Amino acid sequence: MRHLVIVSVVLASWCLATSCAQTQTAGRIVFYSEAGSNAELFAMNADGTGLLRLTTNASNEFCPDWSPDGTKIAYESDRDDRRPVACFPSCQFRIYIMNADGSDERRLTDLDSVEGHPDWSPDGREIAFQADRDADGKSEIYIAPVDGGAPRLVVGDAFDNTAPDWSPDGTSIAFSSDRDGNLDIFVVNVDGSGLRKVVDTGLHDYSPDWSPDGSQILFFAANWPTVRQTIYVVGQDGAGLAALTTASRVVNENAQWSSDGGRIVFQSNRDGNFEIYSMAADGTEVVRLRRSSAGDYWPDLWTPAAHEEAQAAAG
């Protein structure tokens, strides 16, 4: 959802992980903020310091996602719409990629469709995303090579299939689908086989995010028509469903694991406007990371130490 607030933002500089990784051990968070007349991408340290504006466009930039090595960011933009920003919420969004400092923005695919919610594969070679190629108001799940090439269809049917998230081992994708009525969380193999439901809370279940060890999936559930939205965690086999946020009439959404599994970042309006928060993996130790009158949304936390460990394990 979008809550437009106009405010000035104080910017600070930071060093890229590739040039001064020793200062980046706590990680970097990328998010979008409505600090002006449109939504732009920002990055900051995991403790909320070191704010850097990454984009300055006459368009909306949403849903950023770090590449596994922290050098690039995928996101969606409405810059290709005939009326950027003014088109919201019915915009022609496309998937773009840029460097971690905001340079070298480029479009991922040439699909003539509404695209959204990019998610990098664990090896950094592909991006999963949703797209409505037949313009029926129902999205399909695709995978596209980062370096160019035709995307391939993973899930495409008469239902709305959204918010893909790649499993850590690269074999499966979790996503939301309304194929059983309300939106529920499903998992499918990357070749489109083995579709299975993971969880159905009885509410609308959105935006799954796989834990780094592959054992659990984060998501949030909306209790319409009330305004409450709750973050849950569930085992990848559907067992052990637990709520991580419990406050009534509060919106907590778009939760993402840190790449080392130690923290969870999310957005919440618990203190008035939407801001970025983090919490421990069990829902405790909640910390507000931003204090701005602008709306801040869709955080993604990259942890350099976890990437280095993954590289070492890969040999």
Molecular structure report:
The protein is mainly beta. Helices cover 4% and strands 43% of the residues. The chain contains 2 helices and 24 strands. The strands form 6 sheets. A 4-stranded antiparallel beta sheet has the order 3-2-1-24, with no helix packed on it. A 4-stranded antiparallel beta sheet has the order 4-5-6-7, with no helix packed on it. A hairpin with a 6-residue loop joins β17 (216-222) and β18 (229-235). The protein starts with 16 loop residues before the first helix and ends with a helix. The model is unreliable at 1-25 (pLDDT under 50).
Q: Return residue spans where pLDDT drops below 50 for at least 5 consecutive residues.
A: 1-25
Rg, nearest Å = 18 Å
What's the overall geometry? globular
SSE string, helices as H and strands as E: HEEEEEEEEEEEEEEEEEEEEEEEEH
Strand count, sense and barrel status of the largest sheet are: 4 strands, antiparallel
Strand content: 35-45%
The number of E-state strands comes to 24
Number of helices: 2
| Structural class by sheet pairing and helices | mainly beta
Q: Helical residue percent?
A: under 10%
The N- to C-terminal Cα distance equals 42 Å
Strand order of the largest sheet: 3-2-1-24
Summarize model confidence as the mean pLDDT. 88
Characteristic key phrases:
2 helices; 43% strand; 4-stranded antiparallel beta sheet; disordered N terminus; 24 strands; mainly beta; 315 residues
Helices, strands, pairings?
Elements: H1 17-20, E1 28-33, E2 40-45, E3 52-53, E4 61-66, E5 72-77, E6 94-99, E7 106-107, E8 114-120, E9 126-132, E10 140-145, E11 152-155, E12 161-166, E13 172-180, E14 182-189, E15 196-199, E16 204-210, E17 216-222, E18 229-235, E19 242-243, E20 252-257, E21 263-268, E22 275-280, E23 287-288, E24 296-302, H2 304-313
Antiparallel strand pairs: 1-2, 1-24, 2-3, 4-5, 5-6, 6-7, 8-9, 9-10, 10-11, 12-13, 13-14, 14-15, 16-17, 17-18, 18-19, 20-21, 21-22, 22-23
